[in-house]
Specification:
Blueprint: E1 12-17, E2 20-26, E3 31-33, E4 38-48, E5 60-61, E6 73-84, H1 85-94, E7 97-100, H2 106-115, H3 124-133
Antiparallel strand pairs: 1-2, 1-7, 2-4, 3-4, 4-6, 5-6
């Protein structure tokens, strides 16, 4: 991985999209995933709660739950994704992904993981991956 970065359980990365940076939480240490034939991690996006917009209230994060959180936020389970390590490396090189300095603490991380079994917005593929590799 670029600059010796290796995604890991509880780690965070920022996906850069134009002027915005979106926090993603890595849910597991890399594993060989036979379906994709590669080493992969499951990541979930964190998004700010916006007044009047619908959101998944399964796992709400507040200011102080993580250093990046500046507003009430939520885990976007419907946007959870299985990321290939080679794609992470490519995105790091392109500058569209950056490692973030602060990990998610254990109690918050456990709430995030528990949400995979609670939220109605988790895809079957992501739920299977979570159940096998992230618990």
């Amino acid at each position: 991985m670029t600059d010796d970065y290796q995604p890991y359980r509880r780690g965070t990365v920022l996906a850069v999209s134009g002027p915005c940076k979106h926090l993603h939480v890595v849910c597991n240490d890399p594993v060989h995933y036979p379906i994709n034939g590669c080493h992969c991690v499951l990541v979930v996006n964190v998004s700010s709660v916006k007044f009047g917009d619908p959101y998944d209230d399964t796992c709400i994060l507040n200011v102080g739950d993580h250093s990046f959180i500046k507003h009430e936020s939520y885990i976007v389970y419907k946007a959870a994704a299985i990321w290939r390590l080679d794609n992470i490396d490519r995105k790091l090189n392109e500058g569209t992904l950056k490692a973030y300095k602060d990990d998610v603490n254990d109690p918050i991380f456990q709430r995030i993981l528990d949400g995979f079994d609670i939220s109605d917005h988790v895809s079957m593929d992501n739920h299977r991956f979570w159940k096998k590799y992230c618990r």
